[in-house]
Design goal:
Number of strands: 11
Strand order of the largest sheet: 1-2-3-6-7-8-10
Radius of gyration: 15 Å
Distance between the termini: 16 Å
Shape: globular
Strand content: over 45%
Largest sheet: 7 strands, mixed, barrel
Helix content: 10-25%
Structural class: alpha+beta
Order of helices and strands: EEEEEEEEEEEHHHH
Length: 166
């Protein structure tokens, strides 16, 4: 299905798992699935406003979310209700799994933010990642997570995610 299709869009349930527990679940419109890259769109699914200090996620915001079955991250373009790009929020996660209308993603604590103008690129939650014990419990996954964060940071600083998201 094309993002420009006149057909009704398929719906999926995005399930974000963290530490073995469901952190959040929400309905999203499935825009594309090529077998590796899954693209969905959903309104802000949090309750009320979430103010990080450097960006606010709030009712009316729309997230266009890119997931991969072979990469250790997801990239979410965040737009305000008026269509203005706020930036990109990236989750470091195990590769996504889509089955039976559920897109399941296991969050590994690390995150990256890139503002719309590219002047603010920041690594987030490195303290949570260190405290998670993943490095001891699953060193291979921890190494993949850190490598994914490094890759995304380099892309963000070199101009953004356009080639990655094409």
């Amino acid at each position: 299905m094309s993002a420009n299709s006149a057909e009704p869009a398929a719906q999926v349930e995005v399930v974000l798992v963290k530490g073995g527990r469901t952190k959040i679940r929400y309905a999203a419109e499935l825009l594309r699935d090529d077998g590796v890259h899954v693209l969905v769109r959903a309104p802000w699914a949090g309750e009320g406003v979430r103010d990080f200090g450097f960006v606010r996620f709030e009712p009316g915001d729309v997230f266009t979310e890119h997931y991969w079955r072979d990469r250790w991250y997801s990239v979410k373009e965040v737009r305000a209700g008026d269509g203005t790009v706020k930036g990109w929020y990236c989750d470091i996660a195990r590769p996504a799994a889509l089955s039976g209308g559920r897109l399941v993603v296991e969050d590994l604590d690390l995150d990256l933010w890139r503002s719309a103008d590219g002047t603010d690129v920041r690594r987030l939650d490195e303290d949570e990642f260190a405290a998670s014990g993943l490095a001891e419990a699953d060193p291979r996954a921890a190494a993949a997570a850190v490598a994914a964060l490094d890759e995304l940071e380099a892309l963000a600083r070199e101009g953004g995610f356009e080639d990655l998201l094409a």
